[in-house]
């Protein structure tokens, strides 16, 4: 099956229920181990527009690299295929907590980004060694942003290095979710906020994400953000 066929074949009713119920979703493994290994290899062999040394910016410790156009086929396919499903969920969320209405194709979202001066691709690959970590953050790169992003861990040889989602609940203490997704499975999570149903309707819960310290081995991950960057 092609990447697009595999994404289309995911249980989107269940994923949507996960997103609505707890704000994030985890898919069944979607990439084969061979595909994950091949993508992980791009960290050293891909074509990038920039490389960030996380310690230098006080973002944590480790390195990440933003892919340059044209994106590797697999990454372009993942971006388009996940977008088509998530745009529908995004539009329901916008009705609940306000926000933009999103076009149903990823090409149309990119046109909107380009009109807003956001032309640089945002998919990235991150590599963490022992002692490395990623500070809690949001990936907003301009006025246009899509409310979901996806992430997959491409390697299976680390300890620690859990994916952390922190919910900043209004007028309450924060809640952490700690995930250890299977290799090649995707975590779908909010870029900025999510609707939560309260006594008087929906309210916004802000989120940040990051990675706990890798205590042994190496961890390589692929992040796919749907909006482009200024
Ligand atoms: O390495 C990770 O799991 C987090 C990556 C990340 O921050 C992202 O994909 O936006
Ligand atoms: Fe991120």
From TrEMBL:
Q: Does the keyword Magnesium apply?
A: no
- Superkingdom of this entry's organism? Bacteria
Alphabetically list the UniProt keywords. Iron, Metal-binding, Oxidoreductase
Task: Recall the GO molecular function terms of this protein's record.
Answer: metal ion binding; oxidoreductase activity
The yes or no answer to whether the keyword Transit peptide is present is no
Q: Which residues cross the membrane?
A: none
Record InterPro entries: DUF2086 (IPR018655), Oxoglu/Fe-dep_dioxygenase_dom (IPR005123)
- Where in this chain does the record put each Fe2OG dioxygenase domain? 119-229
Say which family it is in.
Answer: Belongs to the iron/ascorbate-dependent oxidoreductase family.
What this protein is called in its record is 2OG-Fe(II) oxygenase
Q: Taxonomy-wise, where does this protein's organism fall, top ranks first?
A: Bacteria, Bacillati, Actinomycetota, Thermoleophilia, Solirubrobacterales
